[in-house]
Amino acid sequence: YNPALTRSLKGFAMPRFAANLTMMFNEVAFPLRFEAAAKAGFSAVEFLFPYDYAPADVAGRLAGNGLCNVLFNMPPGDWAAGERGIASLPERNEPDDGEVNYRYLFRLLDELGYAGWVGCEYRPRGKTVDGLGWLKTLACGASGSSV
Question: What residues are paired with 69 via a beta bridge?
Fold first, then answer.
């Protein structure tokens, strides 16, 4: 269990993070990524184009791992329409370096009372779990809390 991934951390508000299973946990096959995300502490996931898998199989993996599905994509249209998740720029790795000040943005989300999910739409530099340290340094630090 990773308290940095939940909505309430020692009384502090913070964004809720959903693992993007298309981009994260590529160390295992897609069907096994649900369990990997749950074991890493995520309570919600999103994914692109799950159409190679039966809906009942995806639903079973969500339920079996206690996960909430917060987004999946319809068949793609115009990819140039933009992004709605977090990743470092320009490499699209963990959001702990690059050109975007996520600490400020997470704090702003808290101040605005945003209660939705923030998609973790990055490609890990190495193993997914090894790269989750940014949650403690950025997400928790945005609220002034510690883990």
Answer: 45
Q: For tokens 């749950």, what's the residue?
A: 38
AA letter at 99: E
Six-digit token pair at 139?
């997400």
Which of these, 64, 88, 71, 74, lies nearest to 21 by C-alpha position?
A: 71
Per-position pLDDT tens, the chain of length 147: 444 444 444 455 668 899 999 999 999 999 999 999 999 999 999 998 888 999 999 999 999 999 999 988 766 655 555 555 778 888 889 998 888 888 888 888 888 888 888 888 889 999 999 999 998 887 665 544 332
| Eight-state DSSP code of residue 74 | P
